[in-house]
Design a protein that fits this description.
Elements lengths: L2 H41 L3 H16 L2 H12 L3 H11 L1 H13 L3 H9 L4 H31 L12 H9 L6 H30 L2 H4 L1
Length: about 220
């Protein structure tokens, strides 16, 4: 069976796996973004706190993904829980680091002007600092998403959802007729999803970042 014949015969299952893969990454990115930006907001004004946040999330990223999921299985079981926890933790570093860099890069004179017209600390953060820090934050989100697309394939080790199951089935049956087709289909599916997500982020950037800031 050729690769194209394999795709034609298994397209429904592949689409289901691709949807589950994209859904898992998207949901984990939402959680990682909220946590990462919150950590950045809490720590960016303090040098040691910002360094600690960056160091902690960097340390998490050094743990091999297979080991991370393996350690989580005895605690939360198989399936979705270890996948969500692992992906969320792995997605933190670029978002935390870029949030801190972006917030520290806001022109202090703009913050002082906002304070001068009576804006509260929360209002300054929401209406001045975070909007100006949004471009680097969005870049961090894009980087995290690309990483998680690949890492999510390892979730199949814990019976997690996604295209990793297709790849693992192919690797487990090397030598059989469709083994290579399965690995290739899963790999190309992840690449296509990563490109689609990145294109969506480019569009979001064009819609949410003023032209002057983009330049």
């Amino acid at each position: 069976m050729t690769f194209w014949e394999y795709l034609g015969n298994r397209h429904q299952q592949l689409l289901t796996d691709a949807y589950q893969h994209a859904s898992a990454v998207f949901q984990c990115m939402v959680v990682a973004t909220l946590l990462g930006v919150l950590i950045g907001v809490v720590t960016y004004q303090s040098g040691w706190a910002g360094n600690l946040a960056t160091l902690s999330t960097s340390t998490i990223l050094t743990i091999p993904s297979l080991a991370m999921i393996g350690l989580l299985i005895p605690i939360v079981g198989l399936g979705v829980p270890p996948t969500v926890i692992a992906l969320t933790l792995y997605g933190l570093l670029p978002i935390v680091r870029n949030s801190i860099v972006g917030l520290r890069g806001v022109d202090p004179s703009l913050v002082d002007a906002a304070r001068g017209i009576g804006m509260s600390r929360l209002t300054r953060l929401l209406r001045v600092e975070l909007p100006l820090a949004w471009p680097p934050i969005l870049t961090g989100i894009r980087v995290s998403t690309q990483m998680l697309m690949g890492i999510a394939a390892i979730a199949a080790y814990a019976s997690g959802p996604g295209l990793g199951n297709v790849i693992f089935r192919g690797l487990a049956s090397l030598g059989s007729a469709n083994a290579l087709n399965q690995v290739l289909a899963g790999t190309l599916g992840i690449i296509v999803l990563a490109l689609l997500f990145d294109a969506a982020y480019v569009l979001i950037g064009r819609l949410t970042i003023p032209r002057g800031i983009r330049v």
